[in-house]
Write a structure and sequence with these properties.
Blueprint lengths: L2 E4 L6 E4 L7 E3 L6 E3 L24 H23 L3 E5 L6 E5 L6 E3 L6 E3 L45 H7 L11 H47 L7 H18 L5 H14 L6 H16 L5 H5 L6 H12 L5 H17 L3 H12 L12 H15 L3 H17 L7 H10 L16 H13 L3 H5 L2 H4 L3 H18 L4 H13 L5 H12 L1 H4 L3 H8 L9 H14 L6 H4 L10 H11 L5 H10 L4 H19 L1
Antiparallel strand pairs: 1-2, 3-4, 5-6, 7-8
Helix pairs in contact: 3-26, 4-5, 4-6, 4-26, 5-6, 6-8, 6-9, 8-10, 9-10, 9-11, 10-11, 11-12, 11-13, 12-13, 13-14, 14-17, 17-18, 17-19, 18-21, 19-22, 21-22, 22-24, 24-26, 25-26
Length: about 625
C-alpha cells in the first residue's frame, strides 16, 4: 500500500509506493532530502521474498532518481484523478443549481429548469492532452534561416557595436551639450522676436481701429437722421450744410458700400439747405466747406466703374454751383485756389484751366473798381500751375492776362498778376504800368505783391512810412499780400509781425474792413497769426454791426485754431462763442479731429448740446478714418 507523508520543509503532502519506504529521496517540491517513512510491521505482506544476494542492487543515486520520478508520476496521477467530471453553477435566470459535463465547458447549453440558454463556464482544472501547437518543433533543415521576432527600437543586441545616442540621453547616461549661439544668430533671433511682438501690437491696434470705425459709422448715420427729422432739423442752413459736407467726405473715403451718386445727393441737400442760411458771411464759409467736399467726388476710370467716384465732367458741373453763390470775392478766390490745386493733383491740369474760365465767364469789371479782379483770379490759377511745374499751362494764363490788357489798355491793374509776371517772366515788363511813387492804393498793392514775389517785402513793409500809415490802408495792403503769401507758401517774419499788429488793433470802421478780417481768419493758420491777437480782435467788433455775435465768434474760432494743444479747459473757451453758431460747432469738429484728445473729448461730448455734439462726432469719424487708413 502507498506510504503517505509530508515534507518537513515545505509541508507539502505526498504518497509514495511502499517499495520506497525507508529510503531517502529529494522533495519533488523544494528538493530538500527527506526519508520516506517505513511501513508498519503488520502491513508488510508475508509473501514478499527478500531479494537474493546474487541480484545486483542499484546505487543510492540511481535509487533516489527513480524515487523522484516515481513520486512525481504518482503526484501527477493524483492531480489528474482530482479533476472534476462535472461543472456545477447557478443559472443566471432561475438561480437553480445546475450541473453539466466537463466537455461542455465554454459552450452554450439549455438550463434544465427554465430551459434558457446558458453559457457553461470553464472548469477550474482542465486536463491537457496532446501536444502544444505553440511549441511544435521546427522541422526545417538545420541550415535554414529562422524567422526572428522584431526587436524593440533602441535596444542593444549582439549585432550592435554601441548603444544608440538617444537611448543614452533618455537614460541620463550622457548630457547633451549645445554650442553657444553666434552673434549673428542672436541678432537673428532677437529680430524674429521683435517682429512677432510688433506684428501682434499692430494687429491689436488695427482691431481697435476697426472696432472704433464701426462705432463711428453708427454715429454718423444717427446724425444724418437727426438732420432730416431730429434735433438738428431746425438748425441754421449753414450748420446743416457743413455737417452734411463732413458726412459726405467721411463716407466717400471709408464706406465703399455707399455709392458716389448717393453721396452727391447728400451734398446737393447740403447746398439746398443754404437757402435758409442765417448769415451771408457764414454762408460763404459753408460754401467753402462744400466746395472742398465736392472736389473729392472726382476720380479715375476704375473708381468711376466701381461707383466709388464720379466722372470729372460731372464733378466740374456740380462744383460750379457753390461758386455762383459766394458774396465775398476773397473767399471765392480761396475756393478757386484750392480747387485748382486739387485738379492739378488729380492729373486734371486742362480741367483747371477750363474751370477757371467757367467761373469767370460773364463777370464784368465795374468802371469804378481800382483792381481787375478777373486778372487776379486768373493769376492765382496761373501761380498754382507754375508751382506745380505746369509751365505750358501757366503760359496760357500769362497770355490770357496779357491779351486782356493789350485789348483794353484802360483795364485796372492786378496785384496778383504783377506778382505772377514777376515769377514767370522776370526779365519782361508788366503788361500794365505801375507808378512807383504813386499814392494810389492799387499801385501800392502791385508794388507789395511784386516785392513779395521777389523776396523784397521788408523794404516797403518794414519802412516807418508804412507803419505810420492809415490803419485801414495798412489792413487792406496786408490782407492782399497775406493772401498772396498763403498762395505762394512764403513765411515772411516782417509780414507776420505786421499782421499780428493789425489784427490786435481790430480796425473795423466799416463792412469792408470786417470782410478783410474775415478773409485773414480763413487763412490765419497758414500765416501763423497768434491766438492772443485774434482774441483781442474779437473784443473790437462793433456791437451795432449786423451779425455782431457771429463775427465775434469767427474771430474767437481763429483764436481757438491758433492754439497748438487742446485740453478740457481749452474747450471751455468755446463757451464765449455764440451758441449753436457755425464757428462754435466747427471748434468742436476741430478738437474731434485730433486723436490725442479723444479720451477726454468723448466725455465732453456727453455734456455738449446740439449741434456741437454732432460736429464733434463728425470730427472724430474723420480722424478715425485717417488713422485707420494709416494702419
Amino acid at each position: 500500500m502507498p506510504v503517505q507523508f509530508s515534507c518537513n520543509a515545505c509541508k507539502k503532502k505526498f504518497k509514495a509506493a511502499d517499495k520506497f519506504a525507508g529510503k531517502t529521496i529529494p522533495c519533488p517540491s523544494c528538493k530538500v532530502p527527506l526519508i520516506v517513512p517505513a511501513l508498519p510491521p503488520d502491513s508488510i505482506p508475508h509473501e514478499i521474498v527478500p531479494p537474493q544476494a546474487s541480484i545486483k542492487t542499484k546505487s543510492q543515486a540511481e535509487q533516489d532518481i527513480e524515487a523522484m520520478a516515481a513520486l512525481a508520476l504518482e503526484e501527477t496521477k493524483q492531480e489528474e484523478e482530482a479533476v472534476p467530471q462535472f461543472i456545477q453553477f447557478e443559472c443566471t435566470f432561475c438561480d437553480e443549481k445546475v450541473s453539466f459535463p466537463i466537455d461542455l465547458g465554454g459552450k452554450q447549453a439549455p438550463c434544465p429548469g427554465c430551459r434558457r440558454i446558458l453559457k457553461v463556464p470553464m472548469p477550474a482544472v482542465v486536463k491537457k492532452s496532446g501536444p502544444d501547437w505553440k511549441k511544435q518543433p521546427d522541422k526545417r533543415p538545420s541550415g535554414a534561416l529562422r524567422k526572428e521576432e522584431p526587436e524593440l527600437e533602441g535596444t542593444w543586441n549582439s549585432t550592435m557595436d554601441t548603444v544608440s545616442r538617444d537611448a543614452l540621453l533618455e537614460a541620463g547616461a550622457i548630457v547633451e551639450e549645445f554650442e553657444p549661439l553666434t552673434r549673428a544668430e542672436k541678432i537673428k533671433r532677437a529680430v524674429m522676436v521683435f517682429v512677432v511682438i510688433v506684428s501682434g501690437l499692430l494687429g491689436f491696434l488695427y482691431y481697435n481701429s476697426y472696432r472704433g470705425k464701426v462705432n463711428e459709422d453708427a454715429q454718423i448715420a444717427k446724425i444724418e437722421l437727426s438732420i432730416k427729422s431730429g434735433d438738428l432739423a431746425n438748425s441754421s442752413g449753414e450748420i446743416k450744410a457743413v455737417l452734411l459736407a463732413g458726412i459726405a467726405s467721411y463716407r466717400l473715403s471709408e464706406t465703399p458700400e455707399v455709392s458716389a451718386s448717393k453721396i452727391k445727393k447728400t451734398l446737393q441737400s447740403a447746398l439746398a439747405s443754404l437757402d435758409k442760411a442765417g448769415s451771408l458771411f457764414e454762408k460763404d464759409f459753408a460754401l467753402l466747406e462744400l466746395s472742398r467736399s465736392i472736389i473729392e467726388l472726382g476720380g479715375g476710370k476704375d473708381d468711376v466703374r466701381d461707383n466709388k467716384k464720379l466722372k470729372w465732367d460731372e464733378v466740374q458741373k456740380f462744383l460750379k454751383q457753390p461758386f455762383e453763390s459766394f458774396t465775398i470775392p476773397e473767399i471765392k478766390l480761396i475756393a478757386l485756389k484750392e480747387a485748382t490745386a486739387s485738379f492739378i493733383a488729380s492729373g486734371e491740369t486742362d480741367r483747371a484751366l477750363a474751370f477757371a474760365s467757367q467761373v469767370l465767364s460773364g463777370s464784368a469789371v465795374s468802371k469804378d473798381k481800382k483792381i481787375d479782379d478777373h486778372s487776379d483770379f486768373l493769376a492765382v490759377v496761373g501761380m498754382e500751375l507754375f508751382k506745380a511745374q505746369k509751365i505750358e499751362a501757366s503760359k496760357q494764363i500769362l497770355d490770357s492776362i496779357r491779351t486782356r490788357y493789350t485789348s483794353a489798355p484802360t483795364t485796372p491793374v492786378s496785384p496778383f498778376a504783377a506778382a505772377f509776371f514777376k515769377m514767370a517772366e522776370k526779365d519782361k515788363p508788366l503788361p500794365f504800368v505801375v507808378a512807383k511813387d504813386s499814392n494810389n492804393e492799387a499801385d501800392i498793392f502791385c508794388l507789395l505783391c511784386g516785392d513779395l514775389a521777389d523776396d523784397k517785402l521788408e523794404t516797403l513793409i518794414g519802412s516807418s512810412n508804412f507803419k505810420n500809415a492809415d490803419a485801414v490802408f495798412r489792413l487792406n495792403c496786408l490782407t492782399k499780400v497775406s493772401f498772396l503769401a498763403s498762395v505762394l507758401g512764403k513765411d515772411v517774419s516782417v509780414l507776420k509781425d505786421e499782421l499780428n499788429r493789425i489784427v490786435s488793433e481790430g480796425v473795423m470802421p466799416n463792412v469792408d474792413s470786417v470782410q478783410s478780417y474775415l478773409v485773414l481768419s480763413a487763412i490765419s493758420q497758414s500765416l501763423k497769426i497768434s491766438s492772443d491777437s485774434w482774441f483781442k480782435a474779437s473784443d473790437k467788433v462793433p456791437q451795432a454791426m449786423k451779425d455782431y455775435k457771429q463775427i465775434k465768434s469767427r474771430f474767437l474760432l481763429a483764436s481757438f485754431l491758433a492754439k497748438e494743444d487742446f485740453t478740457s479747459s481749452t474747450l471751455e473757451d468755446t463757451n464765449k462763442m455764440e451758441a449753436a453758431s457755425l464757428s462754435k460747432s466747427m471748434a468742436y469738429r476741430h478738437v474731434g479731429m485730433n486723436p490725442k484728445n479723444s479720451s477726454w473729448f468723448k466725455g465732453a461730448l456727453i455734456k455738449a448740446s446740439e449741434p456741437e455734439k454732432s460736429f464733434g462726432y463728425v470730427g472724430i469719424a474723420i480722424s478715425s478714418d485717417k488713422n485707420f487708413k494709416k494702419k
